[in-house]
Amino acid sequence: MALANHQQILIMIELLWVILDKKLLTTKFIMNLSIVDDKLQIEFTFKEQLLAVRLNKLWQISLAHIEQVTIAEPQSNWRELRAPGSFVPGVIKAGTYYTNRGKEFWYVNRETNYLTIQLRDESYKRIILTIDDNESWQQRLAQIIAA
């Protein structure tokens, strides 16, 4: 019985890989960041929702809950527990991760233009993204939280 379940899981993983194929996994992310009513709003595409196993298209975080914003490469290691999410080494890391720092949301690819948002009073401790305009978002959010 356990062997049958294991085989079913392997088949599902193979099917998922075929569905997502390398082209999807290596495309640029087009999530949209904006500031709406004193909240940082992150809007995910359907593909991004699928890879991150995220049910909601919109995620709003109170600007008052943002402690720090950096563009430095974030710390990551093999001891992180992914639940739920996607991970293909060197290609994509997306979804919820439980680390020694707490619960984190990652949506990064092989690019190095990181935006790490440190939070307080939220269920997630950090949000780590790779976005094209990471430096301008870091400056913009840093100015807002400094005020």
Your description of this structure?
- With 147 residues, this protein is α+β, with helices and mostly antiparallel strands.
- 31% of the residues lie in helices and 37% in strands.
- It has three helices and nine strands, in the order αββαβββββββα.
- The protein has helices at residues 2-26, 46-52, 134-146, and strands at 32-36, 39-43, 58-62, 66-70, 81-88, 92-99, 102-109, 114-119, 126-130.
- The strands form two sheets. Strands 4-8-9-7-6-5 form a six-stranded mixed beta sheet.
- The N and C termini lie far apart (60 Å).
- The mean pLDDT is 84.
Q: What key phrases describe this protein's structure?
A:
147 residues, alpha+beta
Compact overview of the structure:
The chain is α+β, with helices and mostly antiparallel strands and 147 residues long. Helices cover 31% and strands 37% of the residues.
Summarize the SSE layout with pairings.
Layout: H1 2-26, E1 32-36, E2 39-43, H2 46-52, E3 58-62, E4 66-70, E5 81-88, E6 92-99, E7 102-109, E8 114-119, E9 126-130, H3 134-146
Parallel strand pairs: 7-9
Antiparallel strand pairs: 1-2, 2-3, 4-8, 5-6, 6-7, 8-9
